[in-house]
Design brief:
binds flavin mononucleotide, NADH Oxidase, five-stranded antiparallel beta sheet, globular, alpha+beta
């Protein structure tokens, strides 16, 4: 499909905002499949297909919350009772968490790890845009024990072979957010004037 007119797709991307506070319903199985399919359209040097996702559905989120909080404490990070309560309140409403990882291609002389990381970031961005286009909100967090060994491992991602890059909470926004002022991209852009 080619989008020729100034497009709904671009308008949707321009209006996307992260929104942490989401509730059910989350995407149905068909929508979720479609959303994840956009992830594997990300640019992918050498077709590594390294992206990996783990679905933590609402019925498992309470158990996962306990695991993430306990593992983060064991890892040595302080979590105050207030912070714990805030995390529990937040996650008790979330209908779907997607854990995000990629399989590391070790010592790949053609695709340095930064390119592998970038491809994963592009995949996650596609998910966020697709979720938004379907009327959901999402929020990428590297809380919840992302950088512990224990949490990724419990989710099936051994730290020797996988880089775990966080979680997306996806669902229906509890409070839809008004559009936000974004920087003017042209202030971040310059034209190269050729060799002086
Ligand atoms: C890799 C990554 C990890 C993030 N982790 C957190 C996080 O742990 N906590 C947080 O408050 N925001 C985190 N953010 C930022 C939010 O996901 C979100 O991008 C930010 O609130 C800005 O919202 P916007 O996407 O509408 O610009 C993270 C963003 C990225 C790209």
């Amino acid at each position: 499909m080619t989008i020729t007119q100034s497009s709904d797709l671009v308008d949707s991307m321009l209006a996307r905002r992260s929104n942490k506070l989401v509730q059910a319903p989350g995407p149905n199985p068909e929508q979720l499949k479609q959303i994840l399919q956009t992830a594997v359209c990300a640019p992918d040097h050498s077709a590594l297909r390294a992206w990996r996702f783990v679905l933590i559905e609402q019925s498992e989120i309470a158990a996962f919350t306990d695991l993430a909080i306990d593992a983060t404490r064991r890892w040595g990070r302080e979590i105050t009772p207030q912070k714990e309560q805030n995390t529990r309140n937040w996650l008790s409403q979330v209908p779907l968490l997607i854990g995000l990882a990629y399989k590391i291609s070790h010592d790949n002389s053609k695709v340095p790890e930064i390119e592998q990381t970038l491809s994963m970031g592009a995949a996650v961005m596609n998910i966020q845009n697709a979720a938004h286009a379907l009327g959901f909100a999402s929020y990428w967090s590297t809380g919840l024990g992302t950088y512990t060994e224990e949490v990724p491992e419990a989710l099936g991602f051994d730290g020797l072979d996988y880089r775990f890059v966080g979680f997306l909470a996806i669902g229906t926004p509890i409070n839809p957010l008004a559009p936000v002022q974004r920087p003017d991209a042209m202030t971040l852009t310059h034209a190269w004037k050729g060799v002086a």
